[in-house]
Design brief:
Blueprint lengths: L3 E6 L3 E9 L15 E5 L1 H11 L4 E7 L3 H12 L3 E6 L6 E7 L2 E7 L13 H4 L2 E6 L5 H16 L3 E5 L12 H5 L4 E5 H8 L4 H8 L5 E5 L5 E5 L2 E5 L12 H14 L4 H15 L12 H8 L1
Parallel strand pairs: 1-4, 1-8, 2-6, 4-5, 8-9, 9-10, 10-11
Antiparallel strand pairs: 2-3, 6-7, 11-12, 12-13
């Protein structure tokens, strides 16, 4: 038995979430909203909390600044049972302000120390204690060699590896990514990202192309559910019908549900169902993790 079920390299940030309202104020004007929500954010922390709520022993290796928001992050990790190995940093805690204006999501982001930690920074002795490691915050060709070296080291240590690629805000969609997907145990991507990376016009074409580069991919399709590409076979799972309050972190909660199933030997169908249930649950409240299910709730659903 290993000490850590899932080890995640990444730094939490702060999500300041503003509930929906009609329009931005004009210059010199002020508007008032019913509430604002401050939560931990970022793929690493939302996936980690989701896994911890499913009683998986989870650790984040990340940079945390000694400021007010850094203290808040440490308290939240303790509250949800996520261990965090802290690497001090001089940069302030990153903040992302999410605005929902007339049903159009807008973001203002300060990265701060978010990019201060990458997989190469994980101590080898810590990696050996883990069953699985999950990678986030991939930044294209500049990261490729580092990620490949880390995955090779993880596999040599008997550790499986997953990665969520995320949206490429540079617009490059560099296909060097496929060198990494070839050696991953699980690859997470959404339908829009998949079509961008594969340069295809529809999802079926994208999955067909990805099959040549990836042994296992969980593809997130929002209200259309999800698909799993594993060893050339495709499994589909329907989405839960919900009225979303806030979609922040839904994909990261999906990842937590899938990894729970993957690490507990569940069938492909149940892995996807667990993932869809966690993703759908997360959108029932503000932020990415407050309404993610606990293990008892997930087990009841999987029955």
């Amino acid at each position: 038995m290993k000490e850590i079920d899932v080890l995640i390299a990444g730094t939490p940030n702060i999500d300041l979430i503003v509930p929906p309202y009609g329009a931005l104020p004009d210059p010199g004007e002020e508007i008032r909203v019913d509430n604002m929500y401050v939560q931990c954010g970022g793929g690493a922390v939302i996936t980690a909390i989701g896994l911890s709520k499913l009683e998986m022993k989870t650790m984040i290796y990340g940079a945390v600044h000694n400021d007010l928001f850094g203290e808040f992050i440490l308290r939240e990790m303790q509250k949800y049972g996520v261990e965090i190995e802290v690497r001090p940093t001089e940069k302030n805690t990153g903040i992302s302000i999410a605005l929902d204006v007339d049903k159009d999501r807008r973001f203002i982001t300060y990265d701060g120390c978010v990019n201060e930690v990458s997989p190469k920074d994980i101590p080898k002795e810590l990696l050996k204690k883990a069953r699985h490691t999950h990678l986030t915050n991939y930044r294209g060709r500049t990261d490729m060699e580092e990620y490949l070296e880390f995955i090779e080291a993880a596999h040599k240590a008997g550790v499986t590896v997953s990665m969520d690629v995320g949206w490429d805000d540079t617009g490059h969609w560099d296909q060097c990514l496929f060198e990494i997907t070839k050696v991953l145990d699980v690859f997470f991507i959404n339908d829009k990202e998949l079509m961008e990376y594969t340069r295809t016009e529809n999802l079926d074409e994208g999955i067909e192309k990805l099959a040549g580069y990836c042994p296992c991919a969980a593809i997130k399709m929002g209200a259309c559910g999800s698909r799993l590409l594993a060893d050339g076979k495709i499994t589909q799972s329907n989405a839960y019908r919900v009225n979303p309050i806030d979609t922040t972190g839904a994909g990261d909660s999906f990842n937590a549900g899938y990894l729970y199933g993957f690490l507990n030997g569940l069938s492909p169908e149940k892995c996807l169902k667990a993932a869809n249930f966690c993703g759908a649950s997360s959108v029932q409240g503000y932020g990415g993790y407050k309404t993610v299910p606990n293990l008892k709730q997930l087990k009841e659903e999987l029955k």
